[in-house]
Amino acid sequence: MSKRSSGRSHPRCSFTQDEDNFLVDLVAQFGDDNWNTIASYMESRNPRQCKDRYTSYLSPSIKNDPYSEEEDNLLKQKYEELGPKWVRISRFFHNRTDISVKCRWAVLNRRDQKNKGKKLYKDIISQNEVLTDQTNEITEIKSHVENTESNDVIFHEKNEMRMNDELEPNSSVIDMIFPANDPIESTNWDVYNSLSLGNLKLHQPITGIYNLYSFD
Fold it and tell me: Which residues contact 29 (CB under 8 A, 6 or more apart)?
């Protein structure tokens, strides 16, 4: 095991698996409070990087078990109270680091956003179904109104034709009363004026033309 040469840069890239294994061995040899010595053996890593990597990810005291429902609820509660203060929030958890609770919050937040998206989608689908039902109902009402109006027109036309047929004078009856070869004498108009044919009454002609008036 050799120390690294001084003066090298300290890259911010992720630790490799070999670096993690080597760091664990160094901590086992020198303890978890001697980071300057440990960093001197790590290639391109400073004491702060070694300490953060070990205490946040590699320490056996870190609890890596899945979060329980109680822990998730506590995390949501503390986030509402404190905001993204991950170090302070981690103090409310047993063997959970600030990095751990931060990552867990990101998972919970993505899950909540996904559920909200699903709920919004279902609400939109439900509203579209309601609008479709309303549109179909309006179409049915419109069709019913149009059919009713059409039937009313047909009814009135038929009724008007029937009334015209009833009001049209019967030529055979008129011929019987006023024979063509029997001219009407002027002295007989009083008799004819009082003569009624159903709902028709014959009145004295004007300029030689018989006028028929209907009375309802």
Answer: none
Containing 193, the helix (H) or strand (E) segment is helix 189-193
The dihedral over CA atoms of 158, 161, 167, 171, expressed in degrees to the nearest 10, equals: -130
For residue 204, report the phi and psi dihedrals to the nearest 5 degrees: -60, 130
Q: What is the pLDDT of residues 92-143, one digit of tens each?
A: 999 899 999 999 999 999 998 988 887 777 778 877 777 787 787 788 787 7
Task: Please report whether residue 199 resides in a domain.
Answer: no
User: Is residue 4 a part of any domain in this protein?
Assistant: no
Q: Model-level pTM?
A: 0.47
pLDDT digits 0-9 by tens, 51-81: 999 998 899 988 888 999 999 999 999 999 9
Element (H, E) at 151: helix 98-167
Q: Kindly give the pairing relationship between strand 200-206 and strand 209-214.
A: antiparallel
Q: Which residues pair with 212 in a beta bridge?
A: 202
In a domain, 171, yes or no: no
d(CA 107, CA 123): 24
Average pLDDT, the chain: 75
Range of the domain at 50: 14-60
Alpha carbon dihedral 30, 33, 36, 37, in 10-degree steps, equals: -10
